[in-house]
């Protein structure tokens, strides 16, 4: 075994003890350094991403850290800063990651064929006038979403002009509240970090609390693409179909492989993905994994939704593989090692997420006996993220995936059969039916 590498593990959300233990056992050639969560940094005031980064810089120096791993967009932004500060740490640049995180700049800088959109500054003294002009340019129907949002949170469909201002004020209230929300990070969290690491003359909206008004797209399918960049080369790994529930406003609850889109559509999506990522690599994105989301419009034409950087583990990729390990892949990228081959299996695989709708003891929420029973069914595997002694505290606010409590993997069935089986299992696992998202 090679000499143990000291790997800094960044996570602004709780990382369950069981996951920490499993990773430490499975990847014994890495000594993981688990850092405090971002919202634990300052007790008496709103957290500051630059202070958090400075704290991690001290850890890197004091403990001679050799690599950094991040699992979500916000953490990868910090990883990028550490990569810029320490030449021996492999990783992307802040600019390339910020363009992925900032939904308006993703559209206007990275997207080769962007959906019509406008940025609205929530602190503008003429916000209502700005919004009405933006709606005239974009047209109805439209989507309204936070400029830095992830996890499908706080997204509003605007069908009438009268719906626009109330939706804007709702999002403004959510973003200016005192509570730290990793899925809709406030500009107050990022401002000092952005001033320090980004060219704000080039990206002036980086300093503003922005929401994005975007043309509504008539969608028949959502498709995701996973890949990574290693030594400047873009590598495509997997194309999957998002589980699509038209009755849910957020529409996504999991993934299915193989994707049912035509070969031409999938080829077009991968070409767009590669083009977008090449734009990021030109700005220094390297040695990191990433995940693209795409709409397939009614016409059959694909359209970029967003690019997400980091995503440690890529759990839907994990369950679709017949050879390789996506976590090991990311560890190899940040350690400057050669990359092992990952091969996708041919068996149909469905991955569904179970998301909390309340907080409290896990035993009040989940029927663990049913979990064991379901896990014994052939072709089904339930991966719990919490155990009987845990408290559920992080909610999937607004209907997004949020901090899910379990994954259900179903193998060998068609899309329709998998979805129905997942719905049934979700009802069995959840103790209270009002917590079931698809009633």
UniProtKB/TrEMBL annotation:
Residues 107-335 form the ATP-grasp domain. The keyword Nucleotide-binding applies. SUPFAM superfamilies: Glutathione synthetase ATP-binding domain-like (SSF56059). GO terms for molecular function: ATP binding; ligase activity; metal ion binding. The keyword ATP-binding applies. Signal peptide: none annotated. Keywords: ATP-binding, Ligase, Nucleotide-binding. InterPro entries: ATP-dep_AA_Ligase, ATP-grasp. PROSITE patterns: ATP_GRASP (PS50975). This is Uncharacterized protein LOC118417056. It comes from Branchiostoma floridae. The gene is LOC118417056.
């Amino acid at each position: 075994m090679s000499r143990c590498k000291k790997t800094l593990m960044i996570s602004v959300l709780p990382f369950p003890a069981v996951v920490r233990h499993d990773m430490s056992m499975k990847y014994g050639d890495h000594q993981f350094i688990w850092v405090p969560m971002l919202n634990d940094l300052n007790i008496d005031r709103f957290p500051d991403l630059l202070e958090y980064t400075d704290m991690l810089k001290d850890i890197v120096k004091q403990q001679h850290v050799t690599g950094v791993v991040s699992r979500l967009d916000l953490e990868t932004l910090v990883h990028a800063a550490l990569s810029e500060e320490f030449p021996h740490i492999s990783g992307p640049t802040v600019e390339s990651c910020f363009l992925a995180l900032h939904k308006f700049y993703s559209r206007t800088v990275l997207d080769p064929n962007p959906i019509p959109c406008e940025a609205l500054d929530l602190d503008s003294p003429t916000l209502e006038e700005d919004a009405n002009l933006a709606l005239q340019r974009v047209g109805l129907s439209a989507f309204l979403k936070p400029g830095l949002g992830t996890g499908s949170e706080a997204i509003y469909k605007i069908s009438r002009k009268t719906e626009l201002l109330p939706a804007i004020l709702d999002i403004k209230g959510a973003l200016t509240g005192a509570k730290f929300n990793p899925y809709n990070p406030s500009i107050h969290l990022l401002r000092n970090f952005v001033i320090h690491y980004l060219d704000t003359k080039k990206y002036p909206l980086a300093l503003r609390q922005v929401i994005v008004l975007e043309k509504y797209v008539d969608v028949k399918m959502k498709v995701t693409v996973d890949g990574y960049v290693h030594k400047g080369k873009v590598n495509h790994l997997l194309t999957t179909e998002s589980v699509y529930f038209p009755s849910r406003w957020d529409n996504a609850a999991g993934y299915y492989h193989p994707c049912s889109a035509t070969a031409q559509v999938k080829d077009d999506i991968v070409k767009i993905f590669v083009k977008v990522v090449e734009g990021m690599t030109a700005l220094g994105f390297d040695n990191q994994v990433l995940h693209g989301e795409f709409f397939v419009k009614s016409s059959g034409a694909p359209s970029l939704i967003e690019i997400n950087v980091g995503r440690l583990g890529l759990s839907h990729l994990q369950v679709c593989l017949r050879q390789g390990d996506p976590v090991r892949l990311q560890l190899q990228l940040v350690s400057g090692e050669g990359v092992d081959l990952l091969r996708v299996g041919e068996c149909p695989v469905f991955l569904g997420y179970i998301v909390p709708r309340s907080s409290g003891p896990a035993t009040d929420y989940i029927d663990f006996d049913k979990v064991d029973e379901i896990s014994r069914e052939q072709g089904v595997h339930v991966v719990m993220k919490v155990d009987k002694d845990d408290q559920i505290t992080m909610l999937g606010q607004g209907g997004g995936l949020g901090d899910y409590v379990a994954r259900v993997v179903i193998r060998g069935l068609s899309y329709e059969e998998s979805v129905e089986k997942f719905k049934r299992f979700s009802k069995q696992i959840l103790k209270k039916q009002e917590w079931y998202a698809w009633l």
